[in-house]
């Protein structure tokens, strides 16, 4: 398992933007698919976005058109660019891949 460390969360007003990063300490270029997930307050963890090695992306309906997932294999980092944030996007965000361990996540709070 490759340790993953999420960062980039914070407090942002509705309509604002954030870019989350998921840094790995080892080479991730061989990982076929990586994704972002989130745990809203009082709810179960849910899927947000997935990026396959061939470049294909999949998004949850509630983030389509607002979030973009990308990866930089040279930097061993996965990103999630979030725009037009809404209060319902408030959650702890995690990155992971199949077989990986969950990290601590990064908190995103959208509030005025």
Quick structural summary:
With 112 residues, the chain is mainly β. Helices cover 0% and strands 49% of the residues.
Features:
mainly beta; globular; 4-stranded antiparallel sheet; 6-stranded mixed sheet; 10 strands
Descriptive account of the structure:
- With 112 residues, the protein is mostly beta strands.
- 0% of the residues lie in helices and 49% in strands.
- It has a six-stranded mixed beta sheet with strand order 2-10-9-4-5-6, with no helix packed on it. The protein has a four-stranded antiparallel beta sheet with strand order 1-3-8-7, with no helix packed on it.
- β7 (67-72) and β8 (77-82) form a beta hairpin.
- The mean pLDDT is 95.
Topology, please?
Layout: E1 4-7, E2 10-12, E3 18-24, E4 33-39, E5 46-52, E6 57-59, E7 67-72, E8 77-82, E9 91-97, E10 106-110
Parallel strand pairs: 2-10
Antiparallel strand pairs: 1-3, 3-8, 4-5, 4-9, 5-6, 7-8, 9-10
Q: What strand line-up does the widest sheet have?
A: 2-10-9-4-5-6
Q: How is the quaternary structure best described?
A: single chain
Calculate the mean pLDDT score and round it.
95
- CA(first)-CA(last) distance: 39 Å
The percent range for helix content is: under 10%
The ordered H/E elements are EEEEEEEEEE
């Amino acid at each position: 398992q490759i340790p993953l460390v999420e960062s980039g969360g914070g407090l942002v007003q509705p309509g604002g933007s954030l870019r989350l990063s998921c840094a790995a300490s080892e080479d991730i270029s061989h990982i076929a698919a990586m994704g972002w997930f989130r745990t809203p307050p009082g709810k179960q963890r849910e899927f947000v976005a997935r990026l396959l090695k061939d470049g294909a992306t999949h998004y949850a309906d509630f983030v389509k058109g607002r979030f973009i997932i990308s990866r930089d294999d040279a930097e061993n980092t996965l990103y999630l660019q979030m725009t037009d944030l809404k209060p319902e996007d408030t959650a702890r965000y995690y990155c992971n891949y199949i077989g990986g361990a969950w990290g601590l996540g990064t908190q995103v709070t959208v509030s005025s």
